[in-house]
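Anyone opening a protein record will find just a pair of labelled lines. With that in mind, the following record should read easily:
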Amino acid sequence: PSLGMSWTGADHITIARRNGHLVVTAPDDWEGSEVIEIAVTDAAGAGVFAPLTVTVAASLAPAVTGAPQRLGVAAGEASVLDLKDYITDPDDAQTDLIWSVSGQRELLVQVSTSGAVRVEAPTGFSGTENVRFLAYDPSGESAYFDLLVFAAPSGGEPLIAPFPAISLPPGGVDASIDLDDYVFDLDHAPGQISWTVSGPEGLELRVDGDSHVLTVIAADSLAGDFNIDLGAADPDGHETLSPLRVRVTSSFLDPVD
């Protein structure tokens, strides 16, 4: 069926309908926003209405799209990323963007003027670092993303980052730790890691098989500081253990030392 289209509210910008598309044009000497009311009607006069907000600015900031959250690098080896795949600019050429990196401590991170980045983990390094990649356009607008880079042990076992301590009252329940956020493996996703947990009598400990959320339940009569052991194993049989400290106290809001 034939549909008609009309609009109101375009006081500064110009709108034209061409080959089924709306073409929006702004004057060179105007900046600001306008809300355009778009109406689409059929031959019987029935219609729908929708607002279209158009903003005209001197410069548009770069934007982050599809950036990775984690990067695994074997100790003594390097990985290369193209930052242009993750930060784009709608009104400036990629060659005009200025790149910078921060946050690395032991990792060796090099960024070229073209946006290629090389991340190297030193030999013997095992751990995590949060690296920030930042892009500026010629007008000074910027965008960034943070990348958690990890280097796992050379033996192939998963790397477990330090867990935060848990504090709860007698008879209380804690389910604040998602174990997937703390495990890193070069060859497997966190969801592929299986977990075991053990601890003292008086603490009921469970790891959900799907979500990998750790649940800690303290007995009504329990009090004190305890260590529990969490084991992570990948599908290849590599395993590692890491402790987690639990404090059971009626003053459970006090910080754990």
In short: The longest strand covers residues 32-41. The mean pLDDT is 91.
